[in-house]
Amino acid sequence: MKIELLREDLLYAVNAVERAVSTKNTLPVLSGIMISAHGNQLSFRATDLEIAIECVINAAIEEEGELVAPGRKLSALAKGLGSGPLTLESVGQEQLLIKYDRGQISMPCYTTEEFPLLPPREGDIQGTIPVRVFKRMVRQTGIAASADELRPVFTGIMLELDGDNITMVATDTHRLAVSNDTWQGQGKATVIVPNKVMQEIARLANNDDDNIIITVSKSQIFFSFANLSVTSRLIVGQFPDYHQVLPDQELFRSFLTISRLRMIESLELASVISREIARGKGNIVRLRLDEHSVNIYSSSPDDGTFDENQEAVISGEPMTLNYNARYLLDALRVMDDDQVTFSLTGPTTPGIIAAAADDEEAAAEKENKYLYLVLPVRVSK
Amino acid sequence: MKIELLREDLLYAVNAVERAVSTKNTLPVLSGIMISAHGNQLSFRATDLEIAIECVINAAIEEEGELVAPGRKLSALAKGLGSGPLTLESVGQEQLLIKYDRGQISMPCYTTEEFPLLPPREGDIQGTIPVRVFKRMVRQTGIAASADELRPVFTGIMLELDGDNITMVATDTHRLAVSNDTWQGQGKATVIVPNKVMQEIARLANNDDDNIIITVSKSQIFFSFANLSVTSRLIVGQFPDYHQVLPDQELFRSFLTISRLRMIESLELASVISREIARGKGNIVRLRLDEHSVNIYSSSPDDGTFDENQEAVISGEPMTLNYNARYLLDALRVMDDDQVTFSLTGPTTPGIIAAAADDEEAAAEKENKYLYLVLPVRVSK
């Protein structure tokens, strides 16, 4: 293998695939980046068996071939090499030689035979979604996914594809986030994709005006955009039926509409002074719905009290609820709306946070719908 | 105590003194910030007994008094409170009440009697130094100070004041940095100030056009600038005589003059591929002085080799030296000069890095002199 390329291109490709380089030592070859040169295309590939990322760039290929270079090292070098042309050359399969104007770097390589093959990108269900929309949906649902690997289903984002409808849902059983939009799609599928993979794609897709092509097969999902392809395994398991979890309209007893940014400010302050409830329930804040305002309150015997009133539009019954402040903040921070409405069924039963009715009309135009269901915390007296 | 002030002013004062709030739990009151209101001056003060920071601002004082509020909590709240007026009020000595348009926050306080008094700011040796000069000197010497608390003298920066001359020196016994400049001073003193304190002052003094007044007493040193006063204990002990450590002119056998930024690039790359020597000696790189270039080389059986030639102006004997790459990088990164000269006495004896002769002339005008002495590493074959 012998290739000439620009250092900037090497840096771009290595940066793109780097996150898929395995950090575990179980299979050493997975800490490598596979470089293949064929025709006039140079491919960089890394996988930790959960996610695989491939980046294909154009390069002057003098001699075809492939090798697996040590990932972290190649990445650190690519960052430091500055700009200008360089040559990547294999010495047998055992060594990569990087030559540039002022010198050369050699590094030992892994055996290419040991590097896993990527599954072919094929599947009946396919569609195209603007990067901007994809990123919003992932941001809005990812917050509700769990990090607990013991219950794999909850570490994923459920992707529901149905004709020109795309829905993402995530839950850690304390809260549930649903984001819905339209896309140019065909076919019907419901799959669970690791939240980590979805976040990684959102990070890699940095051109908001670009599109992402999503292809779903039996056990894999493929994402293509720019010169990148990302393959992910699917999570096997039964995701809760979110339609059943959402309360029926007639159960709502109170509605609180408030400035989203002001509510964020209050909850952040309330979190500083707050009662730490045992068993990791986090910072508890109390919301009391008065006639024209909501009272936000938190207290702790050691840390004092926080007591604030925010103007709000309130209808329905007076109600007092306790929440984990972080669960509210997570949702409020990923929404775009100026005004949000809490639709409440009672002090111990689920409520829903969504765009306020006024914003909903505006939202109707942008087609994105977002719902965040959250359970109040029972506070022992 | 009852004071009206702007939230921005509270944030400014709390931010300034926050770093002196103790993070240890040995004496609880030291995790507090002392607030004193007298006349029309409001003082915020914190100390961990090594450093004390006081910030004095103007405020509308309705009722004089003082209290010690919990530091971290006050700081977190000040950050979240946004802008606008607020009232600080004491409820006895036990509680601080913060009132603002939308609500109020209360927090328990410490007893003011337990908070240590600050020593009076007096001393015979005094002078004034521009913030810009002070920060450069601290940046250039702090890199050579040790973090090893077992040898306190080496964790400090030695400050040598002699009439209108100010010199800072630091060493961890592997390298030694000397920065010298002029200041408007009188008297003669040699003291050792904790590097941590010097870094903190450099961080707090954010207006480069301001001046710092330094006052030295028997056991304390005082720094005043803007509306801040910083008091620090001095480190007791014997600092090595740096004049004795610097090699005599006739010992220099080779001189290497090179672009500072290019050398940084090379050393960073060489550090990626390098031989880890046991006992924490770090990344070893080899410099070989050829006729018109310097060869920078590092290797490791597992990680490959790095081999680069940089154009350089070289005089004297050919020489090959091994260095801890970090020791060279530390110095090169804090210098301002385009070209630097390594003056070398031999492959196992100290060398000096300083501005190149051409730059030295330019440097003469700005009056700052910088020398960095570094020992090559003995590499066992």
Short key terms for the protein model shown above:
alpha+beta, homodimer, DNA Polymerase III, Chain A, domain 2, 28 strands, elongated, 9-stranded antiparallel sheet, 381 residues
Indicate the topology.
The structure is a homodimer of 381-residue chains.
Chain A: E1 2-6, H1 7-18, E2 32-38, E3 41-47, E4 51-58, E5 60-63, E6 65-70, H2 71-80, E7 85-91, E8 95-100, E9 103-108, E10 125-130, H3 131-142, E11 156-162, E12 165-171, E13 175-182, E14 184-186, E15 188-194, H4 195-204, E16 211-216, E17 220-225, E18 228-233, H5 242-245, E19 254-259, H6 260-272, E20 275-277, E21 282-289, E22 293-300, E23 304-311, E24 313-316, E25 319-324, H7 325-334, E26 339-344, E27 351-355, H8 357-366, E28 369-374
Antiparallel strand pairs in A: 1-5, 1-7, 2-3, 2-6, 3-4, 4-18, 7-8, 8-9, 10-14, 10-16, 11-12, 11-15, 12-13, 13-28, 16-17, 17-18, 19-24, 19-26, 20-21, 21-22, 21-25, 22-23, 26-27, 27-28
Helix pairs in contact in A: 1-2, 3-4, 6-7
